[in-house]
Amino acid sequence: MKIDDASLLAYVDGELSTDECAQVEKAIRESDEIALRVSMLRASQLSYMEAFDQQSLPPVPESLSRSVDELIRQHLSGASAQRAADVADSSVDGAAGQYPGDNVHRLKPRARSLPRLTWPKLAVAFVAGAFCCGLALYLVPQMTGGRGGFITASNDSRMAPWIKAAAGYQQLYSRDTIAQLQPDLRVTASTVADIRNIDNLAVQIPDLRSQGLTFKRVQRLRFHDKPLVQIVYLPEQGKPVALCVLQEVKADAAPSTASVGGMAVVAWRRGQLGYALIGEPGAVDLDALGKRLFNGQVSATISDNDNDAGDNAHRT
């Protein structure tokens, strides 16, 4: 089975067989990139049908129904008169010996034929438009909450797309999977060097043991062809916590909190880098931790300046 976007979308929509689902789930476990794509596809699912099923739709006004019936009646009456006139014209032409033959089709004036083709469609469109207008007038006050602004499902509207994608990816992590990881300092140092030399990101791995978080691994990911660094920690209880970093050439911004896809997120910018601290709500005080990281109150375990992995053993 070829694992492409079409098969991943079918997997998210529940349209694959049991064997095909097993193949996709295996690919998710083995590929961080595929796991991220599945997470983004899941995040894009919207329950339109459920939203409309919960709405009580307004009835079509009786006066509107009567008006449409009258329009249709007038059209049918005019069409009958036109057919009678055509028959009369044909009879006159035949009597005068001017019948052109069976293989010649009479051209009718556009102005006379257009109402026959468009009136029924216009009547239907008129009803549909009136119905949609009534639906909009009914739904908009509820969506705006009477304050003129739309209410979103969560307060993640100010979060950048890469943060939403990273939060969706973080949802795939379980505590048991991360707990089994034993970080290799040499591999970690090599990864940090690649982040510096290849990705051109001056990233450090914060030492968060004093905050009850144990470093587990650092990954080089990509979002829209931009390097995305993910540093994963395991708290004393609850699901893993991730610190994600991506280059953002914007002014520094203080930490702000949001809920993205059920995950708690604290985001900030410093030194043209965007940061997102992502974790399960309530397990760790991410707001306080984000402020400490923003203010530089946490030391680094392995930084972009560390070239000798062996020298880092005593620092962790």
Automatic annotation (TrEMBL):
Keywords: Membrane, Transmembrane, Transmembrane helix. The chain crosses the membrane at residues 122-140. The keyword Membrane applies. It comes from the Bacteria. This is Anti-sigma factor.
